[in-house]
Amino acid sequence: MPKKINAKNNGTVRQRPDGRWEARATIAGKRRSFYADRQSDALKAMRAAQKAADDGNYLEPTRITVSAWLDTWLHEYAANTCKPLTLSTYQSRIETHIRPALGKIKLTDLTAAHVQTFYNDLTRNKGLAPKTVNSVHGILHKALTQAVKLRYIGYNPADACDTPRLTQREITPLSESEITAFLAELHRSEEPLSRLFRVALFTGMREGEICGLPWDAVDFASGTITVRQQLQKEKKKGGSFYIATTKNEKTRTITAAPFVMDLLREEYTAQRKARLAAGLIWKNEWNLVFTNAIGEHIVPQTALKRFKAVCTRIGRPDGEIHRKSKRLNPGLCPRKNGVENPNWGKKWGKRRFLRMKKARIHSEILAFLFTQKERFELSRRLPGLHP
Questions:
Q1: How far apart, in whole angstroms, are the C-alpha atoms of residue 283 and residue 162?
Q2: In whole angstroms, what is the distance from residue 13 CA to residue 2 CA?
Q3: Which end of the chain is more exposed for a tag (fewer CB within 10 A), N or C?
Q4: Going by C-beta distance under 8 Å and a sequence separation of 6 or more, which residues neighbour residue 349?
Q5: Alpha helix (H) ranges present in the chain?
Q6: Distance, CA of 332 to CA of 25 (rounded, Å)
């Protein structure tokens, strides 16, 4: 018959028929068992749980796996706070990387060692880029943070892990002469999206933002453009396009140069003619500024592809409609912390006036750093800028 011993501090310990030791105690109103190969280890686990209960830090044991928790987190928590495209990315990362490696582990058994080994495998054996590994880490960390808040686990194992270092790729934006060549190529090739590209180039809007720009966001009287939405596509086969908030969910107002507003007036006139010609087949349900001949939206990926084709023809195949903005070379900014930069004017006409580690093309700076007067001055310096 298994040996049963009364343990101190309200509990019992016995040796099971299989040779393992079981310590039992009433914790948080329920009878709990703690198993170990040695009697001392079983008692240690029981007393640790008793102390945690006395301190108010006891966590109810759960059999939920990492895979099951990820499903719960996605549908009950992430779905309430994330945009559809972001949620789709989370699902893809979980199905492709996290679930196959960690899904079968019990949530309470997941350790930092498990997670670190997982990250190392993604980098060394799967050959994933540091950016992708960091993205996977971010998703797993968020899911585990929610589990900590719900007291399913006592700490977040991902907190103690190291991810690959992100390296910033040096990007060379279009120079003044290349902008001139780009504009000349638009004119020479009679590019159908010429006005879209020119507005994007000198307002800094992302391709999704300019393709999703509605007419009610353009104020001709004040010469401003309000950016509050973007055009996105569901990240699945045959996914539909929809209007979403901007990337950072913030609205910004761009004071556009006069020639930009002139381009938008031209587009308005051209669109009215196209609408009359299309008649009953005209669409444009979102009242967008840039559409095709029957009012359908311009696909952002198509716009980017055509933009890069023009850049390729001028010898800059790496050109893009926008780049994520980082910090500029301080000597090339018209102002620093609201104070006029004494170096401004000495340098910007003698070199490429943008130096960014990771930046949008000139448009981002024209939109957010230059005053309207400075943008107008730049437009005079670049031949071929006006339509």
A1: 51
A2: 10
A3: N
A4: 381
A5: 39-55, 66-73, 79-81, 84-93, 99-102, 112-124, 130-149, 176-189, 194-201, 207-211, 258-278, 300-313, 362-368, 372-381
A6: 70
DSSP states along 284-300: -TT-BSSB-TTSPBPPH
Q: What is the phi/psi pair of residue 302, to 5°?
A: -70, -40
Nearest to 200 by CA among 288, 307, 293: 307
Please report how the helices 84-93 and 130-149 are oriented relative to each other, as an axis angle in degrees rounded to 10. 100
For residues 42 and 30, give the distance between their C-alpha atoms in angstroms, rounded to a whole number: 17
With beta carbons less than 8 A apart as the criterion, state whether 169 and 318 touch. Answer: no
Q: Residue holding tokens 């028929």?
A: 17
**pLDDT tens, the chain, 387 aa long:** 455 555 555 688 888 888 888 888 887 777 888 878 888 888 887 887 788 777 776 656 667 899 999 999 999 999 998 888 889 999 999 999 999 999 999 998 899 999 999 999 999 999 999 999 999 999 999 999 998 888 788 889 999 999 999 877 666 777 788 888 999 999 999 999 999 999 998 888 889 999 999 999 999 999 999 999 999 998 877 889 999 988 878 899 999 889 999 999 999 999 999 999 999 999 999 999 999 999 999 999 999 999 999 999 999 888 777 644 332 333 333 443 444 444 434 333 333 333 333 333 344 444 443 444 444 555 555 544 444
Please count the residues of the chain. 387
Contact 245, 228 (CB under 8 A): yes
Instruction: Measure the CA angle with vertex 19, ends 1 and 63; round to 5°.
Output: 110
Look at the pTM and tell me if it is higher than 0.85. Answer: no
Contact status, residue 197 vs residue 191, Cβ threshold 8 Å: yes
Two tokens at 287?
């009242």
Place of tokens 């796996």: 65
Q: What are phi and psi of 34, to 5 degrees?
A: -130, 125
Cβ distance 218 to 229 under 8 Å?
no
User: H helices of 74-229, where?
Assistant: 79-81, 84-93, 99-102, 112-124, 130-149, 176-189, 194-201, 207-211
Nearest to 15 by CA among 23, 3, 6, 25: 3
Specify the pairing of strand 21-27 against strand 11-15: antiparallel
- Residue 130: which region, alpha, beta or left (left: phi > 0; alpha: psi -120 to 50)? alpha
